[in-house]
Amino acid sequence: MFSTRLARICCLDLDTFFVSVERLLDPSLRGKAVVVGGVKHGRGVVTSASYEARAFGVRSGISIREASDMAPSAIFVAGNHGAYGDYSTRAREIVERWSPIVVAASIDEQYIDFHGCESLYKKPEDADDDATIVRAVRAMTKAIDDELGLPASAGLATSKSLAKVVCTLAKPQGVRFVRTGEEEAFLAPLPVRKLPGIGPVSEAKLARAGIVTLAELVRAPDVVLRPIFGATTACIRRDARGRGSADLGRERPAFREHDPRGLAAGSISNERTFGEKSARDTASILCGLCEHVCARARSRGVRAGCVTLRLRYSDFETITRSCTIAPSNVDGDIHRAVLALYRRARTRRMAVRLLGVGLGKLSLEGPQLQLPTMDGGARRARTVDAVREKFGYDAVHLATTVERARVRLR
DNA sequence: TCTGGGGTCCTAGGACCC
DNA sequence: TCTGGGGTCCTAGGACCC
Questions:
Q1: What domains, with CATH codes, occur in chain A?
Q2: Which of A74, A118, A297, A366 could serve as A33's disulfide partner, Cβ 3.0–4.6 Å?
Q3: Among chain A residues 5 through 44, which have CB within 7 angstroms of nucleic chain B?
């Protein structure tokens, strides 16, 4: 596409995003150790920690209980996802002033393509297009901070994967740039785990093969890498050399439109972790999960052609069972499928610590049916949606699912 | 480090069809 | 009746990301 690779791919990440939003909602949190994810000593994991909390060793992903021990003086907040979504949208609107090509990768991370934008920002005294774009990126992060009060970092490079790495190293509140031709040297000394796509499992396998840095990964022969990365080996090797794709990829499903074939993007799932549960609780939890995912499917205007049940025993063995169904978003249909899957999956006596229900192979509902012509299940579901719209989700639960909650399950 | 909840993508085997 | 091969769908599991 471009004969010379230009460093025009930008990764923009909002620093400790959830914490930053919590501080906007409650300014007394500024300058303090803040942990988002749950109440102190409660169940759950840290989803975001302020730099003050990180000084105690708190990182996202560790349990809230552990974080409570590490940083007893920290302030713990449960989280406010509605507000996070609003601020994410506003940040994106600011970013779109700088380039028309913006792809949201998550609630706090966006990729921006600046190819062809040089002339928009060039000043007469500018000799260097790279410097022009770097200045634009700095102005963009400053605008997000000035207008929303959200600190942001950015990485600018020739490929998406490298821009992400550069952005991570730029934190907090930094902008970094890797010039064309300097990609491989920049990545070479970094540990393999810094590369997107290499997680703890691959990291450990590479370490056993004596590969710790990206330079070592680049030099490793195919026979070593293939058992670890399979078909993606060539892609990982390209990324590790900083020669990865400049394509921004697709929007994440929450932000993505439906595709023209009538297949809707992504999947919808809901799961819950708990301690010991009686059989009867299990049944009603499955009902609740079905209701929840069906309500979300209806609000998105999609039906599911595939239902998945996820079950985790208390020893952490995790089992999934899925089946194909006639497309539906009616609680009763999904619940029937889930019960059949549960009976197949629950082969051990051991206590269950997690149950989840997922909807896949989503398709568009098509034109809305008139209430009188719907079948009973669909009509009930629509009525429930209307009541919830007015009085909230918990205002009503389907009588049929409450009834089924009494079904004995082992 | 005793591990949440939402996702995506890849792999691999088997069924089924032509 | 035997045969092979390719394509596609279904299902289960695993790695990874935020």
A1: 2-14+100-182 (3.30.70.270), 17-81 (3.40.1170.60), 184-240 (1.10.150.20), 268-406 (3.30.1490.100)
A2: A74
A3: 43-44
